[in-house]
Amino acid sequence: MFKTKKFLLLTITALMSVMLLAACNSGDDKAGSKEENVLETIKKRDKIIFGVKYDTKLFGLKNPSTGDVEGFDIDIAKQLAKDILGDETKIEFVEVTSKTRIPLLNKGDIDAIIATMTVSEERKKEVDFSEIYFNAGQSLLVKKGSPIQSIDDLTKDTTVIAVKGSTSTDNIREAAPDAPVLEFENYAEAFTALKAGKGEVLTTDDSILAGMASEDDSFEIVGEQFTEEPYGIAVKKGEKEFVDSLNSSLESLKSSGDFDTIYDSWFEGLLK
User: Fold this and answer.
1) How far apart are CA 169 and CA 142, in angstroms?
2) Cβ-based neighbours of 44, under 8 Å, separated by 6 or more
């Protein structure tokens, strides 16, 4: 009887040891497993999904005739895809606005944002950025002949049109606190409102305003830049490998001279 009990005790002890070892090994495997990062997902998918503007002439504007999105941001994105995946057609564009772009990125609907997005300390809390790829500055767009010629001309009787979710809205409230601000969902709506006389001035980055002025020569950009608006490509927080890859591709694009060629094709003669 004693030997039987001793045998059973040894058997139970051995089984417990096996189970404990298996549990430890399972935990080690789980701890050692690594979640796939965005760059790995892109390479496995063989396609990059960029969030871009569809309503911003010169940067990202959907051509109603062809259905294609065209602009500086679009051409840069294609070259990034070519450098990272070897083919500029391995790309998908998803429409974003200033208000929707970060939520879409953090939901995983897009891999990166290249959409006239100003790098700011506040935004760095939500996303990571590539190196600066474009330097703009906020300015004013008015009807030619307007008495408004600078930021100093904005008063409580001047309605300023801006776009929701943009840094421009915060900047104008700080620079001209007495002027009422009328906000719209996107730049197309904002420019339509200006042309309809719903406000006397529209404010955003001068590079975006240049696109509007090129579309309708009865409007002009006035005054000096009153902010600095450096654009970066935004990705999810913590995606260092992807940021490094984008920066490397941007550097190659600049060193080859292709960046300047793309810039000149969109902005030559339009910006001061």
Assistant:
1) 17
2) 36
Q: Classify the C-alpha dihedral 240-164-269-137 as positive or negative.
A: negative
pLDDT, residue 270, reads 82
Which amino acid is it at 93?
Answer: F
Please name which of 241, 247, 229, 257 lies closest in space to residue 59, comparing C-alpha atoms. Answer: 229
Helix count and strand count (H, E) for the chain: 10, 15
pLDDT value of position 168: 92
Tokens of 97: 């606005």
Question: What span, in angstroms and rounded, lies between the C-alpha atoms of 215 and 195?
Answer: 12
pTM of the predicted model as reported, rounded to 2 decimal places? 0.81
Task: Name the E strands within the chain.
Answer: 48-52, 55-56, 60-62, 69-70, 91-95, 112-113, 127-129, 134-136, 138-143, 160-163, 181-184, 201-205, 219-222, 229-231, 234-236
Rg (CA), the chain: 27
Answer yes or no: are the C-beta atoms of 215 and 60 closer than 8 Å. Answer: no
Name the residue among 60, 163, 47 with its Cα closest to residue 110. 47
Which element (helix H / strand E) includes 207?
helix 206-215
Residue with tokens 């809390």: 125
Q: Scanning the structure block, which residue is given the tokens 């290249």?
A: 114
Residue 35: band (very low, low, confident or very high) from pLDDT cuts 50, 70, 90: confident
Model confidence at 67: pLDDT above 70: yes
**Angstrom distances, CA of residue 156 to CA of 119, 153, 176:** 30, 10, 9
| Contact in structure between 155 and 147 (CB atoms under 8 Å) | no
Distance, CA of 84 to CA of 90 (rounded, Å): 10
DSSP 52: E
